[in-house]
Structure formats: structure tokens, C-alpha cells
Amino acid sequence: AHRLQEWRGPFRRRLGQMIGRRCALTATVVLPLHAPSLAMACEPTPIGKDAARIDGKNFVLVWRVEPAPLRLGEFFAVLVSACERSAQRVSRLKIDATMPAHNHGMNYLPTITADGSGTFTARGLLLHMPGRWELAFDVASEAAREQLRANVDLK
């Protein structure tokens, strides 16, 4: 038992030193990744003064409709500019609209085009009933995916 205690003493000290060094290295590597300056590095390309902004956990998105204002039963387009907070390129955007009070969505699927720099145009949306609609923006990059939502009241 005595020899085992002698062996444990140096082993524990050495293990403690190794763990201490690894924790210090990990802290050195991890802390800069969570720095506020990097988290705030994302700013979408401006798309007009009347654009609405949605700040998500991973993405920031600005959007506006054309023509504005929305009219019941008329086709419209949504212009979207998005960026990912970790500076990855936004590679995909899907847009859908639902009417939560009636538990249904649109009757048409929009066509979405991208310009390659995080700006997208969705055409062929139509809101066919008055009331509150919820726009869902499904945004994705190589590193993350998030769904951002906005409410639209149509009279």
C-alpha cells in the first residue's frame, strides 16, 4: 500500500499540471471565438429604408415587400438580405406564409432567386385572406440553420 501511495502522489501532481495546461490552452482558444466584436460582425446589405429587421441567434435578416403596401389577393415579392453572425455565406433561403388563426398557408409556392452575396428575391407570394399572417424565413449556411419569423397584418 505504501508504494501505491508513493506512485499516486507524483502521478496526481503531473496529471493536475497537464489538466491545468490544457484548460489554459482551451480558454485561450475558446475565448476569442465568443468575443463580442466577432458576434456583431454581421450586417446585411441594405435593401431600402422601409426594410424590417430580424435579429436571430445565428443570422441577421432585413426584408421588404414589393409592391408596398401589401394588398389582399395580389401577387407580391419579398426582397431579403441576410448574413450569418460567424461570417459564413448564406447559401439558402426559403420563405413561407401561414395564417395561424386559421391553420393554413398560402395557395402558391414562391420562386426564390439569389444573387450569391446573401441577397434573395422571392416572387409569386399571395395572401388571399385578411388577418394576421406569419412570414417564416428559413435561412441556412454551411454552418447553421435558423427559422426567423415576422407578422404581417393584412386588412
Shape, please?
globular
Radius of gyration, whole Å: 25 Å
Instruction: Report the uncertain regions.
Output: 18-39
- Kindly, what is the distance between the CA atoms of the first and last residues, rounded to a whole number of angstroms? 84 Å
Strand content: 35-45%
Structural class: alpha+beta
Tally of individual helices: 2
Mean pLDDT over all positions: 81
Please give the order of strands in the largest beta sheet.
1-2-3-7-6
**Main sheet?**
5 strands, antiparallel
**What is the number of E strands?**
9
Give the proportion of residues in helices: 10-25%
Order of helices and strands: HHEEEEEEEEE
What report would you give on this structure?
The protein is an alpha+beta fold. It is built from two helices and nine strands; from the N terminus they run H-H-E-E-E-E-E-E-E-E-E. Strand 1 (52-55) and strand 2 form a beta hairpin.
